[in-house]
Design a protein that fits this description.
heterodimer; A: mainly alpha; MetI-like fold; B: alpha/beta; D-Maltodextrin-Binding Protein, domain 2; 18 helices; signal (chain B); SBP (chain B)
Chain lengths: ~280, ~425
């Protein structure tokens, strides 16, 4: 009886896992479904995952929308640039936060926490005025800097957690073997931090890729619009929404994120403490 | 080791290159005047029509070129308030009457009173013109409107032995009678009405019952909830719970969601924004026989509150006069008619309404919809400073509770007035 129960555990785990994946993936599945349904079907009481009639015109309509492709390019540039900046700055800063004791650490952690308190609507006007003074409104460089600043506190918080999890003993062992601080960082700490860096990069990329409000307010010229701004033009006044083309545009918009994730995911677990402790 | 060094260098180079390539250039030149026109058109046909009008203008006016800056409705208020405060607002601003009043009061919009031609002024019905007049200043040209209409399933009405109304107007009592007559147990309900956020509908339709809600303007406005204001919520409540002629689920849905049960034959009629006529023609099942019923009239008449889409001019624009000239061009009869046909909305000028009526006749209920265009009146709520806050935090939850039978008429009136007092005191 006990053996029988044990045999049931693994299939039950898989069923639970499949159910969980379905639960998580269903909104995306529904989005894909809506992207190939006609307006008539979307506005009917019929609820099907598979459309009654495949309506690919939503994709051509979405792609025909002015600037969808170029705004995807803008989003990619801003997201990649801000991700790179976040990692470059957060990597050494997080080490300082995690390892150093004293007022710098306290001030740093305090800044991170306080920065999460203010709603975006409060900072947008001063931010706009500052960026205008230095000529960076309506500029993807300005937006990149804003996204970097906006993402930085949480990225620091994430990374300093990863740094703190690396035993100090490893660094001390490296020092005992004759490595100076830079060598220890480069050859011991940073490789062990790789999964954390990847996770932080993924977070930064997606935050920037999806960010709407700063882009909405800061960007004025259509040629600078990012993808969320262009997608928002599918939502009209008087409650009108072009649901099919919006869903199609959203599916297209999700592809780069999915590709980025699938590439980075392999690296997420690959370097995890591999070979850290020799026997 | 070398590989890592190269990787870091490459990463830095890519970042720098990306940042460098991201820059947007603002080339200054001494050519023709360029006006920035922030347009919110969302329908592909309306976007094309806007581009066509602008192209015509640019061809006729080489010295004053207009550049369209497309934007979405989502978040546009926050965008504009930042643009105004930051001195970066476009010259010509597309928006709606209900939202630009506060901009006008804060001094961001140019007074167009002397810039609008007499011809245009005479062409705009008084109620619509009043909706864009703040402190005796004309703050915008109205362009497009929607009215609340009743669309009916002709087959279900005829099966129930109902004679389809054809007059200039239809009373609310007639609507109630037809809803009763077409209700058939749990199979068919007489009416479907998306009332998940009922305040806008109740405000817009209140003038027909003599309801004004507000007196005065700005910070001095006062709220009155009396018979005229309570008449429509009570009527809806009675239809839902005494007659049981409103499909209950639709009262928790948006207008667009409620239309699905109309297509499915679960409701014989539905109250919708007039623009839905175009969607019904496109999305309804092929054998679906539908009709737009005459405009609804209360005891005071068929009036509905006007909240037109608008074109305004930024007061800080260096080219206010040129901007107004462009708007004059944009609102010419043929242009407004074409734009409203593309958007399935009602033109704000009488001549454009007539032009469209002549062109489209009774196709897809256009004759009835356009007839409702003469019934718009200015609504006091447009000019009340705390209206948006009251609507979102007090009125909508209070109406929802009332329509869900959690409160009665007296409690509803108390909640509306007490909530207003709390906000304004």
């Amino acid at each position: 009886m006990r053996v029988f129960a044990q045999q049931l555990v693994r299939p039950a785990q898989y069923v639970a896992l499949a159910g969980y994946i379905l639960f998580l993936g269903f909104p995306l599945l529904w989005l894909v479904s809506a992207s190939v349904k006609s307006s008539a079907e979307l506005n009917s009481l019929v609820v099907n995952l598979l459309p009654q009639e495949w309506h690919w015109a939503n994709y051509s309509e979405a792609l025909a929308r002015q600037g969808l492709v170029s705004s995807a390019g803008n989003s990619a540039m801003v997201a990649l640039a801000s991700t790179a900046l976040v990692i470059l700055i957060a990597l050494p800063a997080s080490y300082v936060l995690a390892r150093l004791k004293g007022t710098i650490r306290v001030a740093g952690v305090g800044w991170i926490l306080v920065s999460q308190v203010f709603p975006v609507i409060l900072v947008i006007l001063p931010l706009f005025l500052i960026l205008r003074t230095i000529g960076l409104t309506d500029s993807l460089v300005g937006l990149t800097l804003v996204h970097t600043t906006y993402t930085m506190p949480f990225a620091l918080w994430m990374l300093q957690g990863y740094v703190a999890a690396i035993p100090v003993d490893l660094e001390e062992a490296g020092a005992m073997d004759g490595g100076n601080r830079l060598v220890v960082l480069r050859r011991i700490v940073f490789p062990l931090l790789a999964p954390g860096v990847v996770a932080t990069a993924m977070f930064s990329f997606v935050s920037s890729w999806n960010e709407f409000f700063f882009a909405l307010v800061l960007l004025q010229s259509p040629e600078n619009y990012t993808l969320p701004i262009t997608l928002s033009t599918f939502i009209g006044g008087e409650g009108k929404v072009a649901l099919g083309p919006l869903a199609a545009g959203s599916v297209l918009a999700a592809i780069p994120s999915i590709v980025f994730f699938s590439i980075m995911q392999k690296k997420l677990t690959g370097g995890l403490m591999a070979g850290a402790v020799k026997g | 080791m070398k590989t890592r060094g190269v990787s870091i260098a490459a990463c830095l180079t890519i970042t720098t290159a990306l940042l460098a390539s991201c820059g947007s250039g603002d080339a200054a030149d001494d050519g023709p005047v360029t006006l920035k026109f922030q347009a919110l058109s969302d329908q592909p046909a309306a976007i094309a029509e806007t581009e066509s009008i602008v192209a015509d203008w640019n061809e006729e006016n080489p010295d004053v070129q207009v550049e369209i800056v497309p934007a979405g409705w989502d978040g546009v208020y926050d965008k504009l308030i930042t643009q105004f405060n930051g001195g970066a607002a476009p010259d010509i601003i597309h928006y709606e009457a209900a939202s630009i009043v506060s901009f006008a009061r804060d001094g961001y919009l140019a007074d167009l009173t002397d810039l609008m031609s007499d011809e245009r002024r005479a062409d705009i019905p008084e109620g619509i013109l009043d909706s864009v007049t703040v402190d005796e200043q004309l703050i915008a040209y109205p362009t497009e409107l929607q009215s609340y209409m009743v669309f009916a399933n002709r087959t279900l009405l005829e099966d129930a032995g109902v004679e389809i109304p054809t007059g200039d107007t239809m009373t609310w009592d007639e609507l109630r009678e037809i809803a009763r007559a077409t209700t058939d147990g749990d199979e068919v309900y007489g009416l479907g009405w998306g009332l998940s956020s009922p305040t806008a509908a109740f405000m817009s339709l209140a003038p027909g019952f003599g309801g004004t809600y507000f007196e005065g303007t700005g910070e001095d406005a006062t709220l009155t909830v009396d018979d005229g204001e309570m008449a429509l919520p009570e009527l809806v409540h009675d239809m839902a719970y005494e007659d049981e002629s409103i499909l209950p689920v639709t009262m928790t849905q948006s207008g667009s969601e409620a239309i699905a049960s109309f297509y499915a034959g679960q409701t014989a009629m539905t109250v919708q924004g007039s623009y839905q006529a175009a969607n019904i023609a496109k999305d309804a099942p092929k054998d679906f026989d539908w009709v737009a019923l005459p405009p609804l009239a209360g005891p005071e008449g068929p009036q509905q509150a006007a909240n037109p889409q608008t074109l305004s001019v930024n007061i800080d624009s260096e080219h206010v006069e040129e901007s107004a000239e462009f708007i004059e061009f944009f609102t010419q009869t043929e242009h407004l008619a074409a734009l409203n046909e593309a958007d399935a909305l009602i033109p704000a000028t009488t001549s454009a309404q007539e032009h469209l009526a002549e062109k489209l006749g009774d196709e897809n209920g256009w004759d009835t919809i356009l007839a409702s265009g003469q019934n718009f009146v200015s609504a006091p709520y447009l000019f009340v400073d705390s209206y948006a806050q009251w609507k979102d935090t007090v009125a909508t939850p209070a109406y929802q509770r009332y329509l869900a039978q959690e409160t009665d008429e007296t409690e509803l009136a108390d909640q509306l007035t007490n909530g207003w007092d709390e906000i304004t005191q």
